[in-house]
Amino acid sequence: MSPALLIWFWPGASWFHHGLVPSSSVAPPLNSLDPRTILAVWQLGGCYMLLGLISSIVFRAIRDTLRSDPIAQERIIGAALTALAIADVFHIITTFIGLPSNLRYAIVEWNATTHGNITITTFLFVVRCAWFLGIGRRRYYYGQSQSNKKRQ
């Protein structure tokens, strides 16, 4: 389920906010959060939704619009995946640094939110790197020699 839906509907912003740092205590009610915190968590849900929309709508539009130009497809998708990969690394590092020191290496104590922020994001970063390396796909731009690029 999308983190955006978890934040906006159920179990809600308070649950998500509470789960950012693993804890055995129960999440406080929504009205116990500062309005700025609620707004920030809801906006974070919007960011999650944006990432999902880019992956499902924009990438498909590029494929459909540039069907006969795989080089252009790859350059545009590659630019987007570069930005996402940079964001992945930043997200992993900031999440890891933001954890209390006693939880950073206690992976079995991480909750679903922490695994989503570190484990799943690391997986997505690896998949993006595999795309750049051409694993499982034919490459048209990335990984081609400069002379091949000039001829195209």
Give the key terms.
mainly alpha; 152 residues; elongated; 7 helices; 2 domains; 69% helix; single chain
The parts where pLDDT drops under 50 for at least 5 residues are none
Biggest pleated sheet: none
**Intertermini distance:** 42 Å
Structural class: mainly alpha
Basic shape: elongated
What average pLDDT do the residues reach?
A: 89
How many E-type strands?
0
What sequence of helices (H) and strands (E) makes up the elements? HHHHHHH
Supply the number of structural domains: 2
Portion of residues in beta strands equals: under 5%
CA radius of gyration: 19 Å
Description of the molecule:
This is DUF7704 domain-containing protein. Pfam families: DUF7704. The protein has 152 residues and is mostly helical. It folds into two domains: 1-65, no CATH class; 68-152. The protein is built from seven helices and no strands. It has helices at 3-8, 13-19, 35-65, 70-98, 101-104, 112-133, 146-151. 11% of the residues are buried. The model has no long low-confidence stretch (mean pLDDT 89).
Nutshell version of this structure?
This protein is mainly α and 152 residues long. It holds the Pfam family DUF7704.
Summarize the SSE layout with pairings.
Elements: H1 3-8, H2 13-19, H3 35-65, H4 70-98, H5 101-104, H6 112-133, H7 146-151
